[in-house]
Amino acid sequence: MQQNETALKIAEFLLQIKAIKLSPSSPYTWASGWKSPVYCDNRLILSHPKIRTYIRQRLADAIENHFGKPDVIAGVATGAIAHGALVAESMGLPFVYIRSAPKGHGLGNMIEGEVKPGQSVVVIEDLISTGQSSLKAVDALRDAGCTVKGMVAIFTYGFKAATDSFKKTKCPLIAISNYDALIQRAAERNYVNDKDMKALRAWRENPGQWGK
Known about the structure:
Blueprint: H1 3-16, E1 20-22, E2 28-29, E3 35-36, E4 38-40, H2 49-67, E5 72-76, H3 81-91, E6 95-98, E7 111-112, E8 120-128, H4 132-143, E9 147-156, H5 160-169, E10 173-175, H6 179-188, H7 194-205
Parallel strand pairs: 5-6, 5-8, 8-9, 9-10
Antiparallel strand pairs: 1-4, 2-3, 6-7
């Protein structure tokens, strides 16, 4: 299956199970304070076995196609822990996960699980918005002496700031679905009308100022 067809199919799955909700007329407020016509919660994928399996396999395929087989799979806490573990299981590889900040007690770990200096790692992420929390995980692995081959995500909004950050950090990013596929499929399946579509396109161009 071609990459764009995969992206469209996953976008449709996410809309069907309401892992992605579209509400231009009554926008959501993100933790960052941004107003958004889109809300994404890819943890809902875990409740749908067929979709979960399909996405797990597409993540594994993307890893092998772009990076080969690494020594370790890492998931970014919390949303990508389960997805990363599923991928690691399917590929027969060790798994670790990366906290958003060092543990506040005990050993103060940021990486949970065993990694060794010199090991190659591919990081799994469920969602890329600005990319800042995702790249903290990359930094933690590099600080531990690992070679991060890249990151594979289920979905990206495709913000320029995130693209620039990944390039600056020299971490290749592969997303198996994206915002362009989402709005294309949403229009084709009548999830939104023409007015809503204009709002969805405008938001992606300037998300920090949209709705103000």
